[in-house]
Amino acid sequence: MLVWKLIIRGLLMDFIISSEGIKNKNIGIVCGPDTLSGVRKIASKVAGDIKAVFGYEPQVAESPRFKSPICVGITGDKLIRDIGIDTSDIDGKREVYKLEVTGNALVITGSDKRGAIYGLFKLSEMLGVSPFIEWLDVKPPKMSTFKIPSGYCMVSKEPSVKYRGFFINDEWPAFGNFCMHNFGGFNAKMYEHVFELLLRLKGNYLWPAMWAEIFPEDGPGLANAELADELGVVMGMSHHEPCLRQGEEYKYLRGPKSIYGDAWNFLKNEKGITRFWEDGLKRSGRFENVITVGMRGEADTAIMGKDATLKDNIDLLRKVLKTQNQLIRKYVNPDLDSVPRMLALYKEVEPYFYGDEKTPGLMGDPELNNVTLMLCDDNFGNLRTVPTPAMRKHKGGYGMYYHFDYHGLPVSFEWFNTSGLTKTWEQMTTAYDFGIRELWIVNVGDIFSNEYPLSFFLDLAYDFDRWGTTNPDAATEYTKLIVDRIFGSNVSKSDRHAICDMLQGYTRITTARRTEAMNDRVYNAFNYNETFDLLDEIDSLMKKCNRMREKLEGNTEFAFYEFLWLPLTAGLNVQRMWLLTTLNHAFADLGSTYAMTLADMIKECIAFDRRIVDELHKIHGGKWYGMGLSEHIGFNNWCEEECKYPVICTLEPANKERLITIVKGSCQSTEGKFWTGRVLLLDQFLDPSCDEASLFLSTACGKKVKYSVESPCKGLSFSSMEGTVKPYDLYELKVKIDRKAIKRGDSTEFCIHSADGYTVVKVPFNRASSFKGEKVCHWTGRKDYGEDLIKANIFDRSLKKEAFGMNYISIPADGYSRCFSSPSSASFRLIRDYSRGMDAVKAYPQEEVFGTKNAPYLEYRINVPSAGRYDVTLYTNPSNPFGREPRILVGYSINGGNIKKINMIPEGFAVGDGNPYWSQGVLDNVRKTTFTVELNEGLNTLNIHAVNPNLVLQKIVICEEGAEVPDSYLGPKPTYRT
Amino acid sequence: MLVWKLIIRGLLMDFIISSEGIKNKNIGIVCGPDTLSGVRKIASKVAGDIKAVFGYEPQVAESPRFKSPICVGITGDKLIRDIGIDTSDIDGKREVYKLEVTGNALVITGSDKRGAIYGLFKLSEMLGVSPFIEWLDVKPPKMSTFKIPSGYCMVSKEPSVKYRGFFINDEWPAFGNFCMHNFGGFNAKMYEHVFELLLRLKGNYLWPAMWAEIFPEDGPGLANAELADELGVVMGMSHHEPCLRQGEEYKYLRGPKSIYGDAWNFLKNEKGITRFWEDGLKRSGRFENVITVGMRGEADTAIMGKDATLKDNIDLLRKVLKTQNQLIRKYVNPDLDSVPRMLALYKEVEPYFYGDEKTPGLMGDPELNNVTLMLCDDNFGNLRTVPTPAMRKHKGGYGMYYHFDYHGLPVSFEWFNTSGLTKTWEQMTTAYDFGIRELWIVNVGDIFSNEYPLSFFLDLAYDFDRWGTTNPDAATEYTKLIVDRIFGSNVSKSDRHAICDMLQGYTRITTARRTEAMNDRVYNAFNYNETFDLLDEIDSLMKKCNRMREKLEGNTEFAFYEFLWLPLTAGLNVQRMWLLTTLNHAFADLGSTYAMTLADMIKECIAFDRRIVDELHKIHGGKWYGMGLSEHIGFNNWCEEECKYPVICTLEPANKERLITIVKGSCQSTEGKFWTGRVLLLDQFLDPSCDEASLFLSTACGKKVKYSVESPCKGLSFSSMEGTVKPYDLYELKVKIDRKAIKRGDSTEFCIHSADGYTVVKVPFNRASSFKGEKVCHWTGRKDYGEDLIKANIFDRSLKKEAFGMNYISIPADGYSRCFSSPSSASFRLIRDYSRGMDAVKAYPQEEVFGTKNAPYLEYRINVPSAGRYDVTLYTNPSNPFGREPRILVGYSINGGNIKKINMIPEGFAVGDGNPYWSQGVLDNVRKTTFTVELNEGLNTLNIHAVNPNLVLQKIVICEEGAEVPDSYLGPKPTYRT
Fold this sequence. Notes:
Chain A is an alpha/beta fold. In chain A, 30% of the residues lie in helices and 21% in strands. In chain A, helix 10 (270-284) runs parallel beside helix 11 (310-331) and helix 17 (493-512) runs parallel beside helix 19. Chain A starts with a helix and ends in an 18-residue tail after the last strand.
């Protein structure tokens, strides 16, 4: 004891970790005699981290023989007391640590076990060690010396959310095969990796895999549970596994002669079920757990049959809860309030909690006192009902069960990561602001590939001050951080920047449509060029990603492969395959020989998909064997049943020389034959800022086709005036406009001649300043834009009659001219890169319900060619009602008129399996709400007023009442503005 | 002169034609000095016919030097007078001949030129010469001797219809290239063949090709017109080519300096147009013509613009008619009434004829006095408005323009023959019965391949007594006749019978859906097995046809090729290709590897289509070169523009071992996986007369799949209890039921096991006599069937809930239990093999409008499981309203209740381009009319009462109100009856 004092006393020196120091055993990690074994184990892992950085591994010892010891312990430990650390600033706090250079020592003091562990890992982090060092084999940059200045002292904050964790789920075939191959089962050898990952990510809570596994038995025996407890991992079980028993257990324990009976039915088999729970609590109650209470049916289904009334169900649950609480008092702790318990308000349990007018729900039931009520998202990342201000007072607090992986209706998502950070940020900050702060758990499927959003989720839960509501750039900032943490100086700054772009780039695409739900009928082949544009984006991302991978070496290359290359490439290759299929079908439908080229490209994608899986299963000696086993292409049911590869279309080329001309960005096409006399419309030049547009040329026949352009207009120029289109090819004929060279009255019509075809193309256009010296616009984001200005050829009525041509105005969410805050400073805020490649606007405080007066609003200014009725369509996130009422109201007003409120939740909407509105919303990740307004000729003001939470607006599209805007997945691109 | 008397006087002997006699110049054809040159030319052709039969060609001479002369002439000819033929029975008649053995001579006397010609060809017919001897190179059976008994005398009837002819139309590229290749143009060399064909078929009237040709100029010069006149062919021009000038003429004669002006516009260019007509009449007026009057726009379009009123148009036409009549009086014949003239009431001219309430139409205009009013079908073989009893008195009478070929909306039909005889019979007898008897003309496109319906059309027009309304078996009888005429004893009787079956077989299929309009979306891939059944029928026909062709030799083989093999094979190969495509898409959609086998079969069809055309173009030294040049596959417009070959679907086989099970005859399929748990329903055994049904098995994967059947029911047996399904294959698993072996209460459910799939199949069934000793039935054709009998498991409600299972009753038209005639003996009659492979019923007299009382009706008896509202759908021919009102009424009554009348013409229907109801009707060749009735439980009586003409009923389908009967092209097959 005295020795310690000697060492640290009187010295005022920097703490230096160096290769030399470690090699010479001057530096080591010191535990005390009573240091918890879990802390010691983590200390050893940190020793390993230090070795990874400095090349030498410090010893972990009890004796103070090092010149520069790294001492670790928790408040009250002998070692900490001996050193004389002042723990008053961490005493009694949750999971807090103090990191202090004192004398010759670096002392890490935890307020509790996890505090000490987080403190140890904090040191690793300071040394540039990634939390994925073990899980993804990420090697940190080498250092020879690292200095912590004398007097350094930092005290961590208490984590924002009490229980922060993830759920290994839907683990077959991928994670399951991975476990069997690498560990021989779901045992403690495997779980040690998972626990370490969880702790390094600052989580503390885990739901184990449970499809076919029993955590408390597979260790073998209790080894899993004991290890978790040792390392400070709080175990939960999934929302439908009460009293520390896994669903699978009952399956093999039940039977006619079983002490547990033979029915998962509390009415018919109360005794057996009670005994089953009792034995679970006896076995595992001594470990740190959050005990699930309540009861659902077997395999995640409703507990009672369809004929049972609400009251039957509620009465049963009350009885179940009472029984369970009695058991917990008896076998875990007579002080029930000190036992963390959780009731999941999942699927059918939600109505039991709320009840209805006739039947009081479980809300307020004394058996639920101090039980954490776990709410959930809709399995697709959109929160369901959140607590009202009154409910937030519930003593047990609230939890949130979120999903980065889902196995269920309408279509599962399990194939590598398809979750981005921004929407997670928006939804989980909403949860937090609504008071859901006790427990956050996220379904991460096989874990692997979901490290990016998982890491964010846990850091957000750990440090809401930093990443939460007040930081609208959290997603981008965090992306930068995680890339720095993984690659650090192993990768140049500019390459790290590129990696960030790729991370955000691929998740932008996979969140717009998840892999399994992607097919050839999602994006429109031609309209707005969305399929071609997305293909370009994918090609660019995949190429960049390949180049980067080729450039990197060793473990850096491998980490890049795991963290980015694989999820990006495997995901985008599937996206690409389907987009090519969309085009293949569309070109085949036109009879274009380009369909056959696309067919070959699709086949390459399929072959590549197989190569990706093969590589994954072999790489690093089979480290990730199994992780590519999930079916992931062309789901026709919610699950893999009847899934299929793309149907590839080919056709026999036509007999005669025939040229097909398509207006790029639209579905218009023709072979330019006499009898049909179809005329094409190139309408891009209606936008005065656009001076280049294109036609696609391809052949219907197997021979080359010659074409020539006949254009009398001097203001139009072409990428070529004549040429040959080869079969199986797609040729882009570019058209440029020089508006100044066009005199009033000049015809801009041109013609493409080929064989016996002549394709007439009409080219309407607007001049840059065609009205009163002001630019023509569809809408304006300029607040100083005059009221009296604009009347222009915005919709061309004669063209519109022919059912094509630009017949809409499209405004992005950030296209408002002014943003008005409420007196209380409530205001809309912009969320960049929210989803589907678009920004969004949302009113804050996001938990506030606004009255008509004093609500914040946005002013959009739109310019229409004539007075009349117009349809306004809002593109929003498919948010669910925040309360029990099926309602998300939004207000709008026109030209300063009264505010009208409309409900964005369609009639018949319900969150859940089989509901068509909800299903479409979560698949498409968008909701469209249309209302009709009267507009004046020229400039109008459309104000959008906040009313209810959960309005996340991304786009506004306006067209004449009843007009059909060309179909697409992403909706019309923004039209021209000034 | 005296010599003749000597020869024939006093002798009473048979007239014998023999090879020997011809060789020895004892037999020859004798003309008189004033015999018309046209008759002489035909006499030479008949001499050729005789050579074809007997091996030696008789001389055609003026001198009576033959022992057995065949004398030919017309009433009043010197030769006929000299012989002393009594012509009193033919004098003054139209186109009549007398064929008489008198003395040593056979004398053919015509009442006029065409009478003599038809008489000559009658002799050929008697000798077994086909009317196609020249056109199709049909060689007659050889004979050495043919005897006409002494005293033989036959006098032909006057033809039923005055002008009987066809229109060579839509002649490019096929007929046009054929002409250029074989004749160097549309000249007299070519037309001689056409005239001969026309006359041999007993026609007398022709509209020449006119797309790019000028009949009166291409002869060269007037040679075409002169030859027609010489041979007695009455020339018309198409409905929009007035005053003997072809549309093409104006095109090249017009111009700024032309005497005809430069506008096809009677308002702006009256002088030029009048001059144009005048010169036409001057040139061609001296020939025998039916002069078209009236005026349409250029190239078969409306004459005035869209903005012209009805009155503008009518006034203009009155003026046009007046001018034309004046010109005809001046340049053709001052006795206008003796000049055959025709006004076509085609397309927009029809409303001008009728006018409206405000504007009197052309009807009754004195300028139309004695002008034949030509009505028309809807271009697809369905009559349009027919004359009312009052209108039938119009002095000029009525004509009918019918189509076996059409180039226009909604989809052209030009590729070989797609017309059958029965519907033509039904429609043209209707025309005749409605008083349309002056002129029948049919558009035969390229002629070639349409010989079958053309020949029937002209014979029907020539001899309505034999083939018309009173002969309901005309189609079958005529088919036998034409086959006998072509093949005679060159082919055995049983083979001729087989040829008849093939003729009716292929036209049954091509009339159900014409070639160009056929595609993969016509027939339903699975429902009612209609696609598979039709494929079987086609395969059987094509095989029989090939075998027959292989068996025949020489010219018989060639005639068979032309007349049957080519249209059958070329047509059915395309049908087959599309049916395979329907299946290819459906199997690809299911992810079945059988799709790839189908893909290969489609490619074979495409290659075969090309081989067929190649052979056609080379056969017989290029005799038919050009006739295969029309595009004919996959029309996407009404014309060939953007037509395309089938889009062929393939896909990558699935990764896992997966078996796909389909219930044959339905769209039900499953892979039998746990999660979706889809159950199949084999419902054929609900029909007590059915004891075999099938499942189709195929693989989703590229590997073999093993399966085994688990069936606890002793009453079910299977074609195999286990086996292996190969990839790319389709395997039929047959299920037989032995009802007696099934005890009450036995489950008939069985299961097919494979890999991790288990497909559960439910097998509901009815016993043969499961209710009160009577057979279960859906409907009954037995009039003695008791009222009190039946109540059975007809619809299985529990199965219906799952949206499949037999949920309808389908009764064929002839399934009535009784037929009630009116007191006037009006009655329904059965028309066998009417269209779409179905019989039909129609009320006769077919021109009669029935009141509610005393109308004939049919009684159908239907058996439903419960009282309630049921939808009754009538499948009828898509007939057009017979009058100006948009109306075809039909009456129905239930269980003896009041008769309700409904209109089968849907609201918004109009005959003509672009009308969706009409277009769908002519493409599908069916109209469906649904009404709702209240039925009692058990047996009900549904009476169908005649009201308006044009009800041609084929099928009645009954289901519960609002229930959806599984989709199909042909409709549900008849359900079970007793």
